[in-house]
Amino acid sequence: MSEETKKSIMDYDTVALDEENNALVIIDQTQLPYHTEILSLTKQEDIWNAIYLLQVRGAPAIGVAAAIGVYLAAREIKADSFDEFYGEFQKAKEYLDSARPTAVNLSWALKRMEQVVLKNKEKSIAEIVELLHKEAVEIREEDIWVCRMIGEYGLSLVKPGDGLLTHCNAGQLATVKYGTATAPMYLGHEKGYGFRIFSDETRPLLQGARLTSFELKESGLDVTVICDNMSATVMRNGWVDAVFVGCDRVAANGDTANKIGTSMVALAAKRYGVPMYICAPTSTIDMNTPTGREIHIEERPGEEVVEMWYKKRMAPEGVKVFNPAFDVTDNDLISGIVTEYGIARAPYESSLKEIFRKKEEALKEKEV
Known about the structure:
The chain is an alpha/beta fold and 368 residues long.
């Protein structure tokens, strides 16, 4: 259904479960900022397309959408035995997992849902489906807490009146609430910090111009859109005190994959002495990937570069187009990785392990 924004884009849930209609409900981000279209998805093909086509995007939001999506798939499975049920569940899991290869939260959420199935094989299928329902809801609720904590730790790195720069959209539209890279901005705004935000437009899909500036403006923050190739200029001018960006995957050595153009921001920040912070939930940290070289980078259609946003094709027919969706920022360009369990700093091989140790301790305390 399509509806105009009532008060603000922030009034809508980015991703949610419609319990009554058994549907995944998302904001169609490809339609922003011109109008707000709410999609109610029940078919697995539509959920797969929503993830692939970036109707729902941002690593945390993709993870939540996948968890809800595979739960909805489980509801539809007709099986007389656990083995039959699990076989169909695996097919649904692998299908959704194929939508986006770089964002680790997609596979993380689906594996977490799979563990619910495997740990409860002695239960009835109806009981397993209900446990999947509870897990999907919990993954969504956890995302809100995680982003809030990232915001608190990130806020400790800056001061009132600072100029902050961000790339792509790691805001509320990429999560359930607060965002990752924008969480310090929102919490600072609540405290009256008066941040000045610079939002890279983020070619070729313009997530920074269409989404980040939109949600920050709607929330009352001071935001200025700049072209991607202007980041070095605003840093050289002394207008930027820190860079906060999100992340789709963190390797064990601290290399990070984020939206294409992030590594250029990091290089400029290094040159001008501006700290570069990666805001990453622990679900985005992949300790099984040694370095950024092993991160599979998704390549998208060339039409996004030469045709989208233009009335006429802006490059000659037949010209080759290279369109990687992400790039890798080397760990030596990163000042810190902000997680919900603290801030990791170089050497990342050890500090990231310490973050997971803290997480494990916290989870044990929660169980007690």
